[in-house]
Amino acid sequence: MQKIKKQNNKNKFGQYFTPRNVADFMIDLANVDRSARILEPSCGEGVFLDLLQSRGYENVTAYEIDASLANQFDCVHYESFVSAKINEKFDLIIGNPPYIRWKNLEDDLKEELMRNGIWSFYFNSLCDYLYIFILKSVQLLSDEGQLVFICPEYWINTAHSASLRNYMTQHGFFEEIYHFNETPVFEGVASSIIVFKFIKGVKKSNFINVVKFQNRKKLDKEMLSCIRQRKDVAGVDYLSVPHFRFGERWMLQNTQTQVELRRLERACQKVKDSLFHDAENHAFDSIGDVCDIGNGMVSGLDKAFQITEEKLNEIENVAALNVVKAKDLEAFFTRKITKYIMIHEGLSEDVFREKYPNFYKHLLPYKENLKDRYQYNREINYWEWVFLRNFKLFSRPEKRIFVPCKERISNKNYFRFALADEDIYPTQDVTAIFRKPEVRESIEYILAYLNQSVVFEWLRCNGVNKGNIVEFSERPIASIPFRRIDWANESEVALHDSITALVVNFLATEDKCILMKINHLFDRLLEVDDVCELQKIG
């Protein structure tokens, strides 16, 4: 993909060009005749143009912002596709559009977007440069015209791309999507990649053909041919996914999985709490409604602040911080506590050496490296942490839930939400979750809920995912649907109290039979009628 990012003038655009075998595969997805009007919005070195030309397509138009590229083709307009005045419609638009976050765009590209009517109407500075390439391309398609693009997958479920997704559901449908996950399609690019075929007009079937490629091997022509023909290949899944709907998340999941996740959301609806609830909106309670969430503190050099065998004086023992690292978390349990040096009194170095002699001796070998840490626009003493974010939250005298801030799920079907005592703190590889003061549901109930398999599935499909890595920063955790208790319902209160007592027992005994009882009680709480969801999704 033609990834544009801030760089020096030697490589202002930082392009990543489509491999020839992948471009060939994409052209195979299109079914247009040789007289078709074809557009390539960001042609780069011209791999699509060369292949189209070799196949006998002559009515081809291309745009490229970098005038040093694709000079051997007469069809290239050297101007920005974003601002180009294009007055014709196309039967096929194909290519590899640029993508980049707003904050990393060159100033002239930002100014161009701010002057652009499409961008101003549909997007904002939280959106990606990619979005306008997709939306404008849909606008330029003729009736039943085809759009075949290769790009990152993140836009199909992020909040900031909702306007783009809604536009696409209103103006056409997806026929095929190939999800390459962590497969190294582009050298040096770690993003999870998709190839999609979108058709403008009224859909002719109820499902999208989706191919999920879980194999991390490099794509070759033979493999691409196999998945195109839907042959049995290790690590490749073939799905029929219900068409995406206006105003809803897009999920590359089969009907059964979608029903299960909608069931969870319906079980968490805010029906009990809102006089103005509109059932059609399916608004649900979330973890963000009941919990305060904070990403862990940043030392800037963890190994320097970790203390293991040092003898400490009384003041140092009080100052030492109890920390649990991500690697020491399990589902429900924190397994190992690591002591960290923590000084934030604003001392001079002489006072620090005198008051904390063992800390001083320990940190001295790391002094130069500590001085080289990122300073967050202020002067930081080498014995201090660089960023005590959420320290006030973490100092609350109550139990908290920890989860690794990133979790690879390639070979497992669970997350590691763990209960920690009140004097345990997280560093930057852990995110902490605290029950809000007014919330009646117990921390044990919340812990058990987060470790439910249906929550794992919901996050796998709807979380912030990069390939097989799920991210647990504040926003994705806050978005998780949460099953609150109707405290006027004696049956629900009894279920809550039973779950809480079982979790306390499990934490004390680690008897895994207790988990089965907990899961059974949550099954009862999450029961809803699936018939309407099956009708809507199917």
UniProtKB/TrEMBL annotation:
Residue ranges of domain Type II methyltransferase M.TaqI-like in the record: 76-186
Domain DNA methylase adenine-specific: 7-49
Gene Ontology annotations of biological process type: DNA restriction-modification system; methylation
Keyword DNA-binding: yes
SUPFAM superfamilies: S-adenosyl-L-methionine-dependent methyltransferases (SSF53335)
Pfam family, one: N6_Mtase
Transmembrane segments: none
Molecular functions per Gene Ontology: DNA binding; N-methyltransferase activity; site-specific DNA-methyltransferase (adenine-specific) activity
Catalytic reaction annotation: a 2'-deoxyadenosine in DNA + S-adenosyl-L-methionine = an N(6)-methyl-2'-deoxyadenosine in DNA + S-adenosyl-L-homocysteine + H(+)
Entry EC no(s): 2.1.1.72
Taxonomy, superkingdom: Bacteria
Entry keywords, A to Z: DNA-binding, Methyltransferase, Restriction system, S-adenosyl-L-methionine, Transferase
Family the entry assigns: Belongs to the N(4)/N(6)-methyltransferase family.
PANTHER family the UniProt entry points to: DNA METHYLTRANSFERASE YEEA-RELATED, TYPE II METHYLTRANSFERASE M.HINDII
Record's protein name: site-specific DNA-methyltransferase (adenine-specific)
